[in-house]
Recover the amino acids of this structure.
């Protein structure tokens, strides 16, 4: 299909893609640039090039502030909480969803459609509507500002998404290959390990990435259901950098912290772009 | 669209035979039971973490109840709903949210469509473009909010400097974006658009891929202009994907919270419905009113989804083509 495009159209499209890439890259480059500015360079256009954009004299001072300096008691626990809460929520959802999606794609039982419709419907719940009742309940049962008190609501974000995405992946697996392998003399375990597991693993992995992104992004739960370093995750902690007056100018520290939490997700996108796209769209639109 | 499981899924037992339901074979009965044993835990946990809080919110919304004063909690029926719906602050937040939903939806549709068409046909930087376009999807919304806030602020920002240069020094260097309602909303929408257009364009790209390119070729041979081909061939053939993208985006935008909280904190009439719920609940500990507002927001989402599914015939389960 691409071959019948004229060279002129091709070149035109290559040119048109440039503004799209610039539009995407600028806010990212900007937060990186801000993180490399010293306190004195933040608001001083003469110390930056490209119209107050890129620092002429980049410094890693802000990174020192968040890891070992004044903001470290805010950032380090938050980073630890983020990693623990997101990994545990992702792990629980993917394991539960794996059994569920397997049943949906392989077995015939009434209620399959109900499960998938519910999963889709609840993923568009206004999450803030869950905050008020949980805030009240967590205060009474002592889960307010604790790690499990965040993991449970995070399941509301990751589990429906995992069920939906993983079911879409599993339905594309040629399950009859398992029987074929057994006919050829493989044991059930061999058939599972050598045939089914390699086919299912990419879908499980991609679902885990997408679920992790969703949990990593959360601000609604973590800003309203936490009150201290006990359980506050990075997005919520970033908002508190502003209020805290432990250091004079929080802009650079916020930018540095933002860069740190952005690096892992950008790496995941760079490595698994194709799979993530398949996972995001397969559930909604058959591509 | 589609992928919701249908019974003809590969590997499933053919149940289409004329056997009456009461005489399910042992094998089919065992399969049903195994199916629910495997799918049940996930389904129950999902209901517990989502529907239970909503049900609890409905219950709490019927009480006059401050967290700091649990003794005087009493049943007041629908009074919280009346209080909320007659509060000018509620309608202000409703209007703000609607403005954000409409602006971001329209711009993202146009921008997302353009990017999707580019990604669909582009040859040379194909992979690079697809990867770069996807990145904002993975960025934390709060990070995007901070990036745009710093970019637009008078002292640390670059936007004013760039606009100043581009307008041949006409644009004031000290323009305060966060000083007024509309300029604040502009930056909020920009951040929201930057962050969520990738998902929009991916959904649209998947729709575009379903359009039979020979139809477009035929229209081209018949002398249709580019615009005619777009309107008469491409759009009707990807209607299902288009409506799904619009529905997903609308429902997502209604609950906007992160961006305005970080950027303005609700100043200059930029409080959204979600922020209102959080303010009542967390800052004023008015659990009753907060729950009522949460339920109202939930009902708004239901109404919008209902309008789409019924009115525009968006079929999320068996789906278009």
């Amino acid at each position: 299909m691409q071959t019948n495009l004229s060279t002129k159209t091709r070149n035109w499209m290559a040119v048109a893609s440039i503004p799209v890439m610039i539009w995407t890259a600028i806010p990212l480059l900007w937060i990186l640039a801000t993180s490399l500015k010293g306190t004195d360079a933040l608001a001083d256009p003469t110390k930056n090039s490209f119209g107050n954009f890129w620092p002429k004299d980049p410094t890693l001072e802000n990174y020192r502030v968040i890891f070992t300096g004044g903001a470290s008691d805010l950032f380090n626990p938050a980073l630890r909480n983020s990693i623990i809460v997101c990994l545990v929520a992702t792990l629980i959802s993917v394991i539960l969803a794996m059994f569920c999606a397997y049943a949906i794609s392989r077995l015939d039982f009434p209620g399959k459609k109900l499960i998938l419709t519910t999963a889709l419907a609840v993923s568009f719940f206004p999450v803030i509507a869950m905050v008020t009742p949980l805030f009240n309940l967590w205060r009474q049962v002592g889960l307010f500002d604790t790690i499990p008190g965040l993991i449970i609501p995070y399941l509301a974000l990751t589990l429906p998404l995992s069920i939906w995405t993983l079911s879409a992946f599993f339905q594309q697996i040629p399950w009859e290959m398992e029987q074929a392998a057994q006919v050829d003399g493989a044991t059930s375990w061999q058939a599972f390990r050598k045939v089914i597991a390699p086919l299912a693993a990419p879908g499980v992995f991609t679902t885990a990435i997408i679920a992790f992104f969703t949990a990593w992004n959360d601000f609604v739960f973590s800003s309203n259901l936490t009150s201290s370093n006990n359980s506050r995750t990075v997005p919520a902690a970033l908002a508190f950098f502003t209020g805290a007056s432990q250091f004079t100018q929080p802009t650079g520290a916020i930018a540095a912290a933002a860069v740190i939490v952005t690096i892992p997700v950008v790496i995941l996108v760079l490595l698994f772009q194709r799979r993530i796209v398949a996972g995001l769209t397969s559930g909604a639109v058959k591509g | 669209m589609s992928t919701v499981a249908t019974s003809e899924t590969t590997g499933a037992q053919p149940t289409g035979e004329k056997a009456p339901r009461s005489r399910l074979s042992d094998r089919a009965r065992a399969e049903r039971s195994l199916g629910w044993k495997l799918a049940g835990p996930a389904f129950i946990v999902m209901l517990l973490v989502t529907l239970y809080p909503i049900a609890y919110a409905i219950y709490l919304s019927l009480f006059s109840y401050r967290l700091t004063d649990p003794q005087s909690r009493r049943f007041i029926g629908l009074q919280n709903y009346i209080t909320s719906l007659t509060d000018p602050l509620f309608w202000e937040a409703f209007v703000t949210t609607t403005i954000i939903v409409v602006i971001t939806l329209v711009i993202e549709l146009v921008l997302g469509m353009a990017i999707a068409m580019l990604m669909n046909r582009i040859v040379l930087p194909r992979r690079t473009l697809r990867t770069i376009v996807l990145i904002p999807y993975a960025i934390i919304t709060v990070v995007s909010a901070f990036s745009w806030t710093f970019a637009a602020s008078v002292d640390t920002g670059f936007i004013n400097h760039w606009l100043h240069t581009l307008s041949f020094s006409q644009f004031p260097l000290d323009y305060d974006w966060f000083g007024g309602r509309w300029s604040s909303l502009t930056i909020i929408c920009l951040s929201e658009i930057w962050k969520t257009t990738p998902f929009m364009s991916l959904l649209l790209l998947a729709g575009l891929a379903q359009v039979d390119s020979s139809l477009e070729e035929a229209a081209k041979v018949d002398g249709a202009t580019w615009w005619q081909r777009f309107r008469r061939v491409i759009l009707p053939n990807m209607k299902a994907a288009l409506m799904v993208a619009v529905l997903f985006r609308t429902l997502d935008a209604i609950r906007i919270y992160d961006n305005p909280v970080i950027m303005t904190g609700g100043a200059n009439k930029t409080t959204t419905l979600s922020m209102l719920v959080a303010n009542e609940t967390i800052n004023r500990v008015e659990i009753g009113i907060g729950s009522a507002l949460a339920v109202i927001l939930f009902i708004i989402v239901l109404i919008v989804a209902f309008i789409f599914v019924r009115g525009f015939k968006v079929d999320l389960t068996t789906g278009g083509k």
The CA atoms of residues 163 and 169 of chain B lie 8 Å apart. Chain B touches chain A through 119 residues (CB under 8 Å). Residues 1-19 of chain B have pLDDT under 50 and may be disordered. The radius of gyration of chain B is 25 Å.
